[in-house]
Design goal:
- By secondary structure, the protein is mostly helical.
- The protein has a domain of 68 residues.
- Helices cover 65% and strands 0% of the residues.
- It has three helices and no strands.
- Helix 1 packs antiparallel against helix 2 and helix 1 packs across helix 3.
Length: 101
């Protein structure tokens, strides 16, 4: 049984070689953004739900999770942008938006 060479291998023609690395890189970038978004939303949801809990030990744990998350967000521009976009979702807002009287 003979397997076909992958489209990004050296044996394929030059046109597919120039297209495939960019397509693979684009796919990897998209998957990385999706993973980061899931991590941002999960950290915010769990931290905020614990911070709003009835028991003090859960509130402390939630505040620690939020603080740890915000420290990690500050390390990357990509996660800062995702955090900014996540603040438009009401469930992920730490404080409700300020409305003038």
């Amino acid at each position: 049984m003979y397997l076909k060479a992958p489209f990004w291998s050296k044996d394929s023609n030059s046109e597919s070689q120039t297209e495939s690395p960019s397509a693979v890189a684009e796919l990897i970038g998209s998957l990385e953004r999706q993973r980061l978004y899931r991590e941002v939303t999960l950290a915010l949801r769990t931290g905020l739900s614990d911070a709003r809990a009835e028991f003090s030990f859960l509130r402390i744990r939630g505040l620690r999770v939020i603080l740890k998350f915000l420290r990690s967000v500050a390390e990357s521009d990509t996660t800062i942008n995702l955090f900014c976009h996540s603040q438009s979702i009401p469930d992920l807002q730490g404080f409700p938006p300020f409305s003038a009287p």
